[in-house]
UniProtKB/TrEMBL annotation, chains A, B:
This is N-acylglucosamine 2-epimerase. The keyword Metal-binding does not apply. Keywords: Isomerase. InterPro entries: 6-hairpin_glycosidase_sf, 6hp_glycosidase-like_sf, AGE/CE, AGE_dom. It comes from Neogobius melanostomus (round goby). Its EC number is 5.1.3.8. The keyword Isomerase applies.
Length: 403, 403
C-alpha cells in the first residue's frame, strides 16, 4: 500500500467528516428549547421533534471531540440533557429517559442501562471542556450507580425477576462500561485511570467470555456463568458489535501494554467476525447472523447498516496502526471501498444508514431513533487521527505503537 | 369472473389450508411439556424452544376452527396455557406472560394487553368445545379486566405515567377488543351478543376515529381525543392493519345490519388503504407508510410480510360476498395472484413470512416470535367459507348477504 493511497483515504475521510459536521451543525440544533433534533430527513428536515436521549448524550459527547468551534452548541445540548434527562419515580429512584418531547418532558424510560451510559458520556465530556467539577462529580456518581446495577443488583432498572428469565450476559453491557471507563479516565491522568482499573478489568473479562465454540465465534449473549445459551438468543452473532468490541479491546491493550489481549482482539474480535460477517455475494457486513447458519429472527438481519461498517473501519485501521500487518490494511481497504461507495449521500451530505442486502438505500433519513451524530463522526475522526499517525510515521518507525 | 375461476381459487385455498394444518400438526406439538413450539424453521425443525403466548393462544383459538380432528392437540395447548400463562407480581396483580420457557416458566411480560387477548381467545374457544363453564367464566373475567385496563385505568399494565407520554389511541386496541367481542358472543346466541354490545359499539367508534385527513387516510395512532398526533407516530399507516380492521367492521356491520358502516369499511378501511399501500413497482403491500410520503422509521417498512396479504384477501372477498361489486373481486384477484406466487413454500409447505421489497424470501422460517399458526389458516379458512358461500349462491341470488 502506497503513501499516496493512505493520503487519499485521509483526504476522503477528512472531507466526509467536514460534510457530516456541517450537516448536523446546520440542521440539528433546536434554538428554541435547546438540545438537538435527531430525526432528520435526507435533506435535513426535522420529521419528528422527539429527542432520543442516547443520541442527545452521544451528540454532546461527540460534538466536541476535535471540533472546537461547536462549543456553544455543545454546551447548550449538555444543559438540555442535565435539565431534563433524569426522571424520578414514585419510590424516589431515578432513571434517564429514553426519549423526551421537544421541550424536555419524558416520553419513555427503558429498563436498561444505555440512556444512563450516554448521559455519563455527555456529562464527562462537557465537564472536561468547561472544567465544571460539579458536572464531573455527577458523571462519576451516575457511573457508580451504573456499576451497582450491572455488578450488584439490577432491580433498580425496574424489570421484575421472572422464573424463566435466566440471567444472561449481553456483550453490550461490558462494552458500554468499558467505553465509559475509557471516557472517564482518558486525558485525566494515571490517577483517574487507576480509579476505574478494576471495573475496566472486569469489563475485559466479561467481553472475552463471549468468545465461544473453541474460539471460533463471538456470541452476543452468554449465560451469567459464561456458557453458551440455548436458542436464537444464544446463537446470535452481531458482526458490527464484535468489531466494535475489538477496537475497544485494542485501545485497552495499548493503554495497559497487554500484547496478548491485542492479539486476541485482532484474531477473535476483528478478523474472525469480519470474515464470517461479510456478505461474499453482495459485499458489506450482515447485521445479524446465527452461528449455526440458521435464519436469524431479526427482520433486518441481512440489511447493511452504516454503523457496523464504521466499526470495521476503525477496528482494521487501529489494528494495522498497532501491528503494521499488511492483511489488516487490505481488509480496511475492502471495507473502505464498500462503505464509501454505498453510504455517503453525495446530494445532501451525511450518510444513509440502512441499505438492502444488495446495497440499495432502504431508508433515506439521516437521523432517526437509533442513528444520530455518533458512529459516523466518531469513525471518521478516529480514522483521520490514525491515518495522520501512519503518514507521519511511515518509513520512520515500524512495529506496533500505542494508539 | 367465471364460476370456474372461483372454483380454482377455492381449490388452491383448500389445498393450502391442508398443507398448513399438516405442517403445524406435524412439527408444532410439544409432546413432553404440552403447548406448542412456535419457532419452526423452513422444514419444521424447532430452532428455539421458547413459547410465545400470543401464538400459543392464537394456535389454541385457531386449531379448532373447522378442524375437528385436532381436538387432542387443542386441549393440550389450552391446558398448558391455563397452567402457565398467568404470572402474579409482588402486589398480587397478574398479567399474562409474553413468552414462556419450554416447561412453562415466564421469560418476559409485556406492558400491553395483547397476551391477555390471545389468552381469552384460547380459553373461550376451548370452553365452547369442551362445554367447560369454569373456563368460559375465566375468559369473561379476563375480558372484564381487559376492558377495565382499556376504558378505565391502565395503571395495572405496569407502565408508569410520564409527563411527555401523551395518551394515544392505537388502532390495535379497539381492533383486538372487537375481535374478542365477536369471539365471546358469536355462536352463543343473542343473549351473549347483547352482553358485549356496548363494548362492541365503543370499539367501532374508536376504530372509526382513525379515519383522518378528511376521510383520505387511516392513521394507526391518534390522540385520546381522536385528533391527529404530531410526528412519525401520528403519520404512521399500516395498510395490513387497516384492511384487517376493515373486515372486522364488515362482520360487525353484517351482524347488526348496519349498511352505512359496511360502506365506510369498504371505502375507507379496505379500498383506500389497499390503493395507497400497494407497491406499484414490485407488487405486494408495504408494511408501513408515512401519510406524508416521508420515510417510515421501521426498518421493515418496504418489506412484504405475509399477514397484510392474508388480511387483504379476507377483506376483499368478504366485501365482495356482501356486495357483489365486481371491482372488489378484481382487487381480491390482484392480491391473490401476488400472494400465491410469492408466499407459499412449495418445497416444505406453509408460507414464508418475510420478503424483500422485490419479493425475494428474506427470512425463511415458518414460525417465529410473531408468525405462528394464525394469520395463514384464519385467512384460508375464512376465504374457503366465503367461496363456498359464493359458489352455492352464484347465479341464484344477487346483492348483499350476511357473511
Amino acid at each position: 500500500m502506497s503513501v499516496q493511497q493512505l493520503e487519499q483515504f485521509r483526504e476522503t475521510i477528512r472531507n466526509q467528516l467536514d460534510r457530516t459536521v456541517d450537516f448536523w451543525l446546520k440542521y440539528s440544533h433546536d434554538t428554541q428549547y435547546g438540545g438537538f433534533f435527531t430525526c432528520l430527513g435526507r435533506d435535513g428536515q426535522v420529521y419528528d421533534e422527539l429527542k432520543y436521549v442516547w443520541l442527545q448524550g452521544r451528540q454532546v459527547g461527540d460534538l466536541y471531540i476535535g471540533v472546537i468551534e461547536f462549543n456553544f452548541l455543545f454546551c447548550a445540548g449538555g444543559a438540555f440533557l442535565r435539565k431534563h434527562a433524569r426522571v424520578s419515580n414514585s419510590s424516589g429512584q431515578w432513571k434517564c429517559a429514553f426519549c423526551l418531547t421537544r421541550d424536555g418532558r419524558a416520553v419513555k424510560v427503558q429498563r436498561t442501562i444505555f440512556s444512563e451510559c450516554f448521559y455519563i458520556l455527555a456529562l464527562d465530556e462537557l465537564s472536561r471542556v468547561t472544567g465544571d467539577k460539579d458536572m464531573q462529580l455527577e458523571a462519576e456518581q451516575v457511573m457508580a450507580q451504573l456499576v451497582h446495577w450491572v455488578q450488584v443488583d439490577p432491580s433498580g432498572l425496574g424489570r421484575p425477576p421472572l422464573p424463566g428469565d435466566t440471567p444472561t450476559s449481553s456483550m453490550a453491557v461490558p462494552m458500554m462500561l468499558l467505553c465509559l471507563v475509557q471516557q472517564l479516565s482518558e486525558a485525566r491522568g494515571p490517577q483517574e485511570a487507576l480509579k476505574y482499573q478494576s471495573v475496566g478489568q472486569w469489563c475485559v473479562q466479561q467481553i472475552l467470555r463471549h468468545v465461544q465454540r473453541g474460539g471460533t465465534a463471538v456470541l452476543e449473549n452468554v449465560s451469567a456463568g459464561g456458557q453458551e445459551l440455548k436458542g436464537c438468543q444464544g446463537r446470535l452473532q452481531n458482526p458490527g458489535h464484535a468489531l466494535e468490541a475489538g477496537w475497544f479491546l485494542l485501545q485497552y491493550a495499548a493503554q495497559w501494554g497487554q500484547q496478548d489481549l491485542r492479539d486476541t482482539a485482532i484474531t477473535q474480535f476483528i478478523k474472525q467476525p469480519f470474515h464470517s460477517g461479510w456478505d461474499v455475494e453482495h459485499g458489506g457486513l450482515f447485521s445479524f447472523l446465527d452461528v449455526d447458519g440458521l435464519c436469524p429472527t431479526q427482520l433486518e438481519w441481512s440489511m447493511k447498516l452504516w454503523w457496523p461498517h464504521c466499526e470495521a473501519l476503525v477496528a482494521f485501521l487501529m489494528a494495522y496502526t498497532q501491528t503494521r500487518r499488511p492483511e489488516l490494511l487490505e481488509s480496511f481497504t475492502q471495507v473502505y471501498n464498500y462503505t464509501f461507495k454505498h453510504f455517503p449521500d453525495e446530494q445532501s451530505g451525511e450518510w444513509f444508514g440502512y441499505l438492502t442486502q444488495d446495497g440499495k438505500v432502504a431508508l433515506d433519513f439521516k437521523g432517526g431513533p437509533f442513528k444520530g451524530f455518533f458512529h459516523v463522526p466518531r469513525c471518521l475522526l478516529l480514522c483521520e487521527n490514525l491515518l495522520d499517525q501512519l503518514l507521519q510515521k511511515d518509513g520512520t518507525r515500524a512495529g506496533p505503537g500505542p494508539v
